[in-house]
Amino acid sequence: MDMDLPMPLTSDQVIAVVGPLDDLKIAEIIASGANLAQITAAKLMLAGDEPAGTSLGHEDEPETRRVYEILQSEEPEPEER
Q1: Domain chopping of the chain, boundaries
Q2: Which residue, 43, 72, 73, 78, has most beta carbons within 10 Å?
């Protein structure tokens, strides 16, 4: 077994960063291969707290963008008036 390989994230770790999500979304985030820093950057980007996650340095990473897309699809649509 190669000790240099990172351990896969658990659903509890993902929930600790992004909050409660349905099991499918959690599985998609884990399958994206993103690490906790990338998931945190995506969450901050979604919340608008960081302009494209720039301060964390993960904004251009494909895993961060994928998690952002997954989280964005979870957001409720604004109501039409």
Answers
A1: 11-74
A2: 43
User: Taking residues 38-43, what's their average pLDDT?
Assistant: 93
25's CB contacts (< 8 A; 6+ apart) are: 70, 71, 73, 74
Residue type, 1: M
Instruction: Identify the CA nearest to 45 among candidates 57, 34, 29, 33.
Output: 57
> What DSSP element (H or E) covers 36?
helix 36-47
Question: How many CA atoms does the CB half-sphere of 42 hold within 13 Å?
Answer: 26
Cα separation, 72 vs 46, in Å, equals: 7
**What's the pLDDT score for residue 4?**
65
How far, in Å, CA of 54 to CA of 3, rounded?
Answer: 31
**Entry pTM:** 0.76
